[in-house]
Amino acid sequence: MTAATAAIGSALAMTLIIGLRYLATSGFFAWLTGKARPGLYAKLGPQMRREVYWSLLSAGTYGIPAGVVAWGWQNRGWTQIYADVGQYPLWYLPLSVFLFLAAHDGWFYWTHRWMHRPRLFRIAHAVHHESRPPTAWTAMSFHPWEAVTGAVVIPALVFLIPIHVGALGLVLFIMTLMGITNHMGWELFPRWLVHGRLGRWLITATHHQKHHDVYKGNYGLYFRFWDRLCGTDLGLGDFGGAGRGAGGG
């Protein structure tokens, strides 16, 4: 098997894994929504089918760089991913997770804000905002051009920041969890967290819903740091008191 064939095979395998992960995790949270907020998605069948379509296209976009990186790590040692937990001090494990999340959050903030420029919004980001209100299936519902901006960041970071393979798995878990729960149309996390001191810096559905309500501000992914620094933090959204998404794309 040639190196090119092996890399292509790895990309196809990662595409399948990402697609199945999306179906499993978004499916679980959609099921949870049905239990916790009966009827919330009752009239959104056509929208959710469209979200699944765009998300599975995005899985292919995400799978190509992820597959090449996985192949390169296993066969060429290209990346800074390491498997020996003793290679770096133990305190570096949580630090590496934070560094990845902080770098990803900064990249997401600025590319997301860029995507809201009128021309780019019409070309690409409008696909994501067609979800009115967002649902558990919305997190990966992107036009391919927008999916590219999201697909390159984690693969790029593994060449720059050393990270244990288990810590990288945690980063991907947090990315998936926050991406889905921020879009469910209701708040999963407790009020003490969302409205407390920690909530002043963390993004949950109540914060991201405001972005989908007014189409501007609240551009971050994990943290409110860049929004607060740049004056684009609009505060928290409103689910109408019954956990129902407030609409607004």
What labels describe this entry?
61% helix, two-stranded parallel ribbon, 249 residues, mainly alpha, 10 helices, disordered C terminus
Order of helices and strands: HHEHHHHEHHHH
Overall pLDDT level: 91
Strand tally: 2
How much helix is in the residues?
Answer: 55-70%
Describe the structure.
This protein has 249 residues and is mainly alpha-helical. It has one domain (3-185). The chain has helices spanning 3-36, 45-75, 92-115, 118-129, 144-151, 153-157, 165-181, 191-194, 205-214, 225-230; strands at residues 81-82, 163-164. A two-stranded parallel ribbon has the order 1-2.
Task: Please render the helix and strand layout as text.
Layout: H1 3-36, H2 45-75, E1 81-82, H3 92-115, H4 118-129, H5 144-151, H6 153-157, E2 163-164, H7 165-181, H8 191-194, H9 205-214, H10 225-230
Parallel strand pairs: 1-2
Structure summarized in a few sentences:
The protein has 249 residues and is mainly α. The protein contains ten helices and two strands.
